[in-house]
Write a structure and sequence with these properties.
Order of helices and strands: HHHHHHHHH
Shape: globular
Number of helices: 9
Strand content: under 5%
Number of strands: 0
Number of domains: 1
Length: 249
């Protein structure tokens, strides 16, 4: 028997234009193509010295471009920002507790995940050398902490949780099996695009993707809650870079 909530979920994530796997793949490929093209141009601009910024934010333009493309695609398909997860939380008073719980789950995952992986393969440490200029530089750390929500937390959540998980739900279904596949696939993609951090960094971010993706579903696909938790995680990350120590693991 189909419940009202299940019917609503299907209506929300099965727009007529997304009725076939081909359309789902096309939408995903468009976002990948735009992000990849902008990353190539951005990398070229860096190599030619056209971008006067440090390597700390390399890749930011491609993420923002991908997020903008995802928003345009959803709206052009007859959807809205609410379909990406930009909805008012049902109970605002619970948001701080939910975000804190997600952050704690993230810290636990970052501590235990690499240990479990290292039981099977030798796991290299993430390559964060591109952020060496942050260590001991308070102004640089503050600047990075302020810019990350705009260049990482928000656009990444739009792409990987709001957009990609919505598309994958249309592909895999909204039952338990579909939810597991959706979370795992988006987490693997999320880890892969952080290739600049090396293999250890890709595993690091794949674990992040599992935490953020699971939290997104448990919070009723509300993107704001996950964005807050993601931003808090970035704040800890910048603090780690500034102090030159590891806060997880």
């Amino acid at each position: 028997m189909t419940t009202l909530s299940e019917t609503s979920a299907r209506k929300r994530f099965s727009l007529p234009e997304l009725s076939t796997p081909l359309n789902v793949f096309v939408d995903i490929l468009i976002v990948v193509a735009v992000s990849g093209a902008v990353f190539f141009l951005e990398d070229l601009a860096y190599s030619l010295g056209w971008i006067p910024y440090g390597t700390e934010i390399r890749g930011a333009f491609s993420v923002v471009a991908g997020a903008a493309t995802a928003v345009v695609l959803v709206i052009s398909r007859g959807g809205s920002l609410a379909d990406l997860g930009f909805r008012r939380p049902t109970r605002l008073a619970l948001v701080p507790f939910q975000a804190t719980a997600i952050l704690l789950a993230f810290l636990l995952g970052q501590s235990l995940g690499p240990l479990l992986v290292s039981l099977f393969v030798e796991l290299p440490a993430p390559d964060f050398s591109r952020y060496d200029s942050i260590q001991g530089n308070l102004l640089a750390a503050i600047g990075m902490a302020l810019i990350l929500p705009l260049t990482a937390s928000i656009p990444e959540e739009i792409i990987y949780r709001g957009f990609l998980m919505g598309r994958l739900t249309s592909l895999f279904g909204d039952d338990r099996r579909g939810a597991i596949l959706t979370v795992m696939v988006q987490a693997l993609i999320f880890g892969a695009i952080h290739f600049q951090w090396g293999l250890g960094g890709m595993i690091f971010t794949a674990i992040m993707g599992v935490v953020w993706g699971t939290a997104f579903l448990l919070c009723g696909r509300n993107l704001w809650i996950v964005i807050i938790a993601h931003s808090l995680g970035h704040l800890l990350f910048v603090t780690q870079l500034y102090l030159g120590i590891s806060l997880v693991g």
